[in-house]
Amino acid sequence: MKKFLLKTALFTAIMAACASIACFFIDKGLRKTEYTQYKEWNNIHGSKINADVLIQGSSHARVQISPTVLDSILQLNTYNIGIDGYAFDVQYARYKIYMQHNRQPKYLIQNMDIETLGKSETPFMREQFLPYLGDSSLKEVLMGTIFPAYYFYFPFLKYYHDFKLLKIGILEYLNLKKFEPAKTYKGYETADANWNHDFEKFKAKDSMISPVVDAHVLNLFDEFLSDCKKRNIQVIIVCCPQYYKFNEMIKNKDGLTEIYEGLSRKYNFPVLDYTSDSLCYDLKYFGGPTHLNKKGSELFSVKLANDIKKLSAQK
């Protein structure tokens, strides 16, 4: 029996060692690819951004604020690090990683929506984090919610369920294949679709929507604003356009506005609220109730850039 246990332990140790070596090469390969979401993570870690104007938020930022437009009007280098499907706790972790590897921006545009101050608990494209789970900022916010704890203690297990990622990582590491890069420019991805859905059908699913505010995430946001203030980074809080009928579905929107305005007064950072902008009343500018399409995002980006230009001229 003892001999059997020793053989089993030895076999397990050899398999774990092989898996760890494979994991190392997969991580390395994914950290150099431009495939899907890895492109932006790798630009951040590779110190390739160093923006003057940094755009941050969820998909509301990523597909609605165009660096091309801001660059042309502000004559500054702009980059969008918006991340789909995650609230401010994960956005803040991304910001901290960005600051570790890149020069700090002069301006930071922080998009806010009804879910920004909630807690990120629903996995969404979580494979994007796998090569970077060793980062303490990500570990703090992802362990036990987006990923089980054993992924962090036994990282060689994290790819066992995803043969496609294993393949991409190995092939990219060995320079045997370059996978199609993400179709983004400076982190921004256009949403070309027009919204043709019946709003009443959308409304029937959720007649009223409540903003989510988690006390811990609110404290993180306060900490973030304090850090930017100390670093002399000019934060601009932005609420992007939303279809006006969607705005009518939001309960206690005034309470959320009070939070933004209170923090704005505390740190002397401006709030630019476009949720009642003229764009909000025309369906042709939307790809969905809360996301502008390509045409809408470019028109909005022009308005935003000009408003930032006015703010900067006042200083």
Please explain how this structure is put together.
This protein has helices spanning 2-30, 38-45, 59-62, 67-74, 88-101, 136-142, 150-153, 163-173, 199-205, 215-231, 244-247, 253-267, 294-314, and strands at residues 53-56, 78-80, 107-111, 234-239, 271-273, 286-288, 291-292. The protein has 315 residues and is of the alpha/beta class. It has a single domain (36-159, 191-314), classed as 3-Layer(aba) Sandwich (Rossmann fold). The strands form two sheets. A five-stranded parallel β-sheet has the order 2-1-3-4-5, sandwiched between helices. α4 packs parallel to α13 (294-314). The radius of gyration is 22 Å and the shape is globular. The mean pLDDT is 88.
What topology emerges from the helices and strands here?
Layout lengths: L1 H29 L7 H8 L7 E4 L2 H4 L4 H8 L3 E3 L7 H14 L5 E5 L24 H7 L7 H4 L9 H11 L25 H7 L9 H17 L2 E6 L4 H4 L5 H15 L3 E3 L12 E3 L2 E2 L1 H21 L1
Parallel strand pairs: 1-2, 1-3, 3-4, 4-5
Antiparallel strand pairs: 6-7
Short description:
The chain has helices spanning 2-30, 38-45, 59-62, 67-74, 88-101, 136-142, 150-153, 163-173, 199-205, 215-231, 244-247, 253-267, 294-314, and strands at 53-56, 78-80, 107-111, 234-239, 271-273, 286-288, 291-292. With 315 residues, it is of the alpha/beta class.
